[in-house]
């Protein structure tokens, strides 16, 4: 008895990961931790209601002793001490092999925002990771081109990113209740690979997305501690890097590291989801929280600089690594002008991060690995990291983190059209099974699509104006949706168009675009 029911389309080789013992392990995790997860989601809703009522956030008075006392996280394992360049991407075999051959120090193997949770992707991602750990990952394209890992000994350290706490996996149920998707993604990977990774001198390392409080970090820590004991691996074998990509988590960086201190490796400045979180939480807080065009909001904005500097200071004070975010620009091997612009933008972004004290940063394309590495090499000057850069000059207040109204830039019709067009195009790609899509020479994933639709919702519901003076209304957006959909010439299906309109213009604000889209996948039988 596994305790789980599997109701899903057939996937080749699924029996290799969906073994009775593996499913029993996931069932145990879900039975132990599902209700706590539900309580934490309810706490999110209560906190959001409080923000809507007060229009403010602040550091928690009840955890001041954690922020004010001296402590550090456990020493980071040797193979995670140099993270100067990390590549992100989905776990299909071809993309995985490209990442493993990229020369990056870390590969964020994304089971979350860059991955559509079609069942074939959920199972296929686990197969890819399992094969990679065992040195047998290979792929042959439909055209007959063969892909293989060039030198497994020089491959990046792999950090899978499971789905966030908000997601359930409908294809696996326990007593008729869908299993928590984060526990599926983590549980299957940990069960199949933890011992093999430790035997090879590494360990089960993860990126953790979309947390909103230190209590959610405490839940992850309890999951890790139980999983280690259940498989008989040493306590502290798991190491997690937490994405600080919600505005509420930004006020609890110390507390999050403290909860995970036996399992923590660092924090990451997940800038795109962070912007989405600000819009989502303060969407009805008035014009002072209304942002300009998405592409006008850079890390030079006062609130983003405050967030970035606080993250570096917090991490290095606690002996944890500070990892920079992903510049969305992607190069083109066919267009020298696009290529030059992408390289320049990425170099500028990584230079700012390296000078701010980050230990490394993300890229989304193998061609950008040398650019990021060169920038950090120059600043590191022979060191593996910048843990010695304590940033004692940084002092960030709640007002600094919430200085949304000080963000320079305009709202333009081009920006509004871009949100509409990109939102629809990305949803079409997502529903088709591709969670990471290159659109207009930018890498779009679920986080950037969330910004696009949430900005439209916020602008409409706050009566924001364009630089022309025109008020952004539902009628205006519906006209632009029709025009952009027609201009795409059938490249976006009706489901994607409908989903965007529902999430961008509905009276209610869906917490996550991908949950609405997941219902469409399930209705299609995926």
Automatic annotation (TrEMBL):
Pathway noted in the entry: Carbohydrate metabolism; glyoxylate cycle; (S)-malate from isocitrate: step 2/2
Enzyme category, top tier: transferase
Keyword NADP assigned: no
Residue ranges annotated for the Malate synthase N-terminal domain, each copy included: 3-65
Keywords: Acyltransferase, Glyoxylate bypass, Transferase, Tricarboxylic acid cycle
Highest taxon in the source lineage: Bacteria
Catalysed reaction equations from the record: glyoxylate + acetyl-CoA + H2O = (S)-malate + CoA + H(+)
Residues of the Malate synthase C-terminal domain: 410-520
Pfam families, alphabetized: MS_C, MS_N, MS_TIM-barrel
Malate synthase TIM barrel domain sequence ranges: 158-403
GO MF term set: malate synthase activity
Matching InterPro entries: Malate_synth_C_sf, Malate_synth_sf, Malate_synthA, Malate_synthase_CS, Malate_synthase_TIM, MS_C, MS_N, MS_N_TIM-barrel_dom
EC number: 2.3.3.9
Protein family (similarity comment): Belongs to the malate synthase family.
NCBIfam families reported for this sequence: malate_syn_A (TIGR01344)
Full protein name: Malate synthase
Protein species of origin: Nocardioides pini
């Amino acid at each position: 008895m596994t305790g789980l029911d599997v109701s899903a389309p057939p996937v080749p080789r699924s029996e290799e990961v969906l073994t009775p013992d593996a499913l029993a392990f996931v069932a145990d995790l879900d039975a132990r931790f599902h209700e706590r997860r539900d309580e934490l989601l309810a706490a999110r809703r209560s906190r959001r209601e409080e923000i809507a009522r007060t229009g403010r956030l602040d550091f928690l008075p009840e955890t001041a002793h954690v922020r004010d006392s001296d402590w550090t996280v456990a020493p980071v394992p040797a193979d995670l001490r140099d993270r100067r360049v990390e590549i992100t991407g989905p776990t299909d075999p071809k993309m995985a092999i490209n990442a493993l051959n990229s020369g990056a120090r870390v590969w964020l193997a994304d089971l979350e925002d860059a991955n559509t949770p079609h069942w074939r992707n959920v199972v296929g991602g686990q197969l890819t990771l399992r094969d990679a750990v065992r040195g047998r990952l290979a792929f042959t394209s439909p055209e007959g081109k063969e892909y293989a890992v060039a030198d497994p000994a020089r491959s990046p350290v792999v950090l899978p990113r499971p789905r966030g706490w908000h997601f359930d996996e409908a294809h696996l149920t326990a007593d008729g209740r869908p299993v928590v998707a984060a526990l599926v993604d983590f549980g299957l990977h940990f069960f199949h690979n933890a011992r093999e990774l430790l035997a090879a001198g590494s360990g089960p390392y993860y990126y953790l997305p979309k947390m909103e409080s230190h209590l959610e970090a405490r839940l992850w820590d309890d999951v890790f501690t139980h999983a280690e004991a259940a498989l008989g691996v040493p306590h502290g074998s798991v190491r997690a890097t937490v994405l600080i990509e919600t505005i509420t988590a930004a006020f609890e960086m110390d507390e999050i590291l403290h909860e995970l201190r036996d399992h923590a490796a660092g924090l990451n400045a997940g800038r795109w989801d962070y912007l989405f979180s600000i819009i989502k939480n303060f969407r009805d807080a008035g014009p002072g929280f209304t942002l300009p065009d998405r592409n006008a909001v850079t890390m030079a904005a006062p609130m983003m600089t405050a967030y970035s500097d606080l993250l570096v200071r917090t991490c290095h004070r606690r002996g944890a690594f500070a990892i920079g975010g992903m510049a969305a620009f992607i190069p083109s091997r066919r267009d020298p002008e696009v290529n030059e612009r992408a390289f320049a933008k990425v170099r500028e972004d990584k230079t700012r991060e390296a000078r701010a004290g980050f230990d490394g940063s993300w890229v989304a394309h193998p061609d950008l690995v040398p650019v990021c590495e060169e920038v950090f090499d120059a600043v590191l000057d022979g060191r593996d990291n910048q843990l010695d850069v304590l940033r004692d000059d940084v002092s960030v207040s709640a007002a600094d983190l919430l200085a949304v109204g000080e963000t320079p830039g305009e709202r333009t019709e081009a920006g509004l059209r871009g949100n509409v067009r990109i939102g629809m195009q990305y949803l079409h790609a997502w529903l088709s099974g591709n969670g990471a899509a290159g659109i207009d020479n930018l890498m779009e994933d679920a986080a950037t699509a969330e910004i696009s639709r949430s900005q439209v919702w916020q602008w409409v519901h706050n009566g924001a104006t364009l630089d022309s003076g025109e008020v952004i209304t539902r009628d205006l957006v519906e006209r632009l949706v029709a025009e952009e959909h027609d201009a795409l010439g059938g490249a976006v299906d009706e489901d994607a168009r409908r989903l965007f309109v529902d999430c961008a213009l509905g009276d209610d604000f869906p917490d996550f675009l991908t949950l609405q889209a997941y219902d469409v996948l399930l209705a299609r039988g995926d």
